[in-house]
Write a structure and sequence with these properties.
80 residues, mainly alpha, 3 helices, flat
C-alpha cells in the first residue's frame, strides 16, 4: 500500500461520516476524470481529432437543406 493510501485511510477514519463520504466522492470523481483523459488521449489521431470522426460524420447531412434563416429586423435605436 502506498503512503497516499495510508494517508487517505487515516483521514477517512478521523472524519465524520458526511465529510468522509464527501472526501471519498472527491477522490472517486478525480479518478474518473483521469481515466477519461487517458481514454480520450488514446483515441485522438495525430491532428487531435477523434479517431474515425470524419468517417462517422461524412455525409451525415446529405439530403438535408443547409439554409441559414433570414436575419431578424434591426432594432430601432433612440435618436440622440
Amino acid at each position: 500500500m502506498s503512503s497516499i493510501c495510508v494517508d487517505l485511510e487515516n483521514a477517512l477514519a478521523r472524519l465524520d461520516p458526511g465529510s468522509a463520504a464527501a472526501l471519498e466522492r472527491l477522490v472517486r470523481d478525480s479518478l474518473a476524470l483521469l481515466e477519461s483523459r487517458v481514454v480520450h488521449a488514446q483515441e485522438l489521431d495525430a491532428r487531435g481529432w477523434p479517431v474515425g470522426y470524419f468517417d462517422r460524420t461524412e455525409g451525415s447531412f446529405s439530403g438535408q437543406p443547409l439554409e441559414a434563416p433570414e436575419d431578424p429586423p434591426a432594432e430601432s435605436l433612440p435618436r440622440w
